[in-house]
């Protein structure tokens, strides 16, 4: 039985420097919130702790099962979780704030990105806000051809308390960059159980991203290069964080 969702959640809960940014968006745009790519709830649960009502959509059944199993009774009543495709979901609700954190957007094919943006516009209340984070496309394009495995951190396994070593690497492929994270669960007898996750970020031109927003009826009002609010600089920023309003 895989415990990959648990390891993923533990890893990314430790690396939570973006959470204050997402909480600030919820404060600016009170009302129902939709998160696309909610995964194990790393962002969704802190948002729920503000009292907001939320809908989380994700296609990964294992990640959603982990999230459901770890929701408090109060949050179970507050959060509606849906397993679905970002490109085709259709809900009866409209939202004041729609989020797509965790670099999910750039893992989608070009046609799929446009479909997602169209869904966002369809599910937006008048004046709603959509905020999405992704790696800076220029930063991805300029990475060396490969990145050798490098240890990021070590944490204690929540169930066994054995050390888990997290390492990452990347490799350019034909249309993008594949990042791999390896979770090595190290047992007292020296055995190592490795589980891995891969995220494939497709190459894209920044101007094409902006055009896709406009085509979907989403007006970009701000672009940031990090979660501290620094203005986006194509030549220096590691991230591209877009805030857009649904045009009336």
Please give a structural write-up.
With 248 residues, the chain is of the alpha/beta class. It folds into two domains: 4-137 and 204-246, Rossmann fold (3-Layer(aba) Sandwich); 140-202. The chain has eight helices and eleven strands. The protein has a seven-stranded mixed beta sheet, with helices on both faces. Strand 4, helix 6 and strand 5 form a beta-alpha-beta unit. The longest helix has 13 residues, at 110-122. It is globular and about 65 Å long. The termini are far apart. The mean pLDDT is 95.
CATH top level label of the largest domain: Alpha Beta
- How much helix is in the residues? 25-40%
Radius of gyration: 18 Å
CATH superfamily of the largest domain: Vaccinia Virus protein VP39
How many β strands by DSSP? 11
Order of helices and strands: HHEHEHHEEHEHEEEEHEE
pLDDT < 50 runs, ≥5 residues? none
CATH architecture term of the largest domain: 3-Layer(aba) Sandwich
Query: What is the CATH topology of the largest domain?
Result: Rossmann fold
Q: Strand sequence of the main sheet, in spatial order?
A: 3-2-1-4-5-11-10
Count of individual helical segments: 8
Distance between the termini: 49 Å
The biggest beta sheet reads: 7 strands, mixed
**Could you say how many structural domains there are in total?**
2
Q: Which structural class is indicated by helix and strand composition? A: alpha/beta
Question: Average pLDDT value?
Answer: 95
Estimated share of beta-strand residues: 35-45%
Shape designation: globular
